[in-house]
Input
Amino acid sequence: MTLNVSNLRIARGGIPVLDGISFALKPGQALILRGPNGIGKTTLLRSIAGLQPPLAGTVTGGEDQIAYAAHSDGLKPALTVAENLSFWASVFGTRSIEAALEAYNLTALRNRPAGALSAGQKRRLGLSRMLVTGRAIWVMDEPTVSLDQASVALFATAVRHHLAAQGSALIATHIDLGLDAAVWMSAPIRPNRWGWVILTGRSCESALGAGSGPGSAGGWGFWPGTGVFPDCHRGGAVFCWA
Output
């Protein structure tokens, strides 16, 4: 199932922060969101997940298929690790939690109350909920917060397996997960003289340094006045404002 975002305009506190956002996230694809704090990444993810209405534009294709992981781990501290996962599995109509426990190295902690876990363990448990949702589209906001290097590797592996099973992922993160994914570098609304700058491939930084104006070197180019991008060989595109 393809997630289609068309001409989305969103606001935080009544102030528009992002405008003209359009993309199609297809099965097997991942899109990474990056940008400074307060730029609107969380607001965008919340709008796409259906938690906040946009000022304009549409989000289609994700009906009953989006699983959203926010900053909060969403755990009941009095419940054990297994009980927390079982609760979410029952909400989404799935049965087994064993694969989720194993994926995030939580099997040995299954009977420990969530309130007794470390910050990193709580984060791993919160992320493991995605595996019991059965949802095809993962929307995740800074999922690696509190995770050590080994746990980040577990998360990246879980995402790769999800993509290999024809799921998709939209992730706001400041770290390199080693995924074959497009990267969207967001910035304040400040169009340059070409309008939207759209870059295909993984390397936004190198592309921005490659020149100024329409071109094809390195697989990138400026597409004036549009937020729509073609598919590229890496499975997505990179958005940047100059």
Observations:
- The radius of gyration is 19 Å.
- Confidence is low (pLDDT under 50) at residues 187-242.
- Residues 4 and 60 are 5 Å apart (CA to CA).
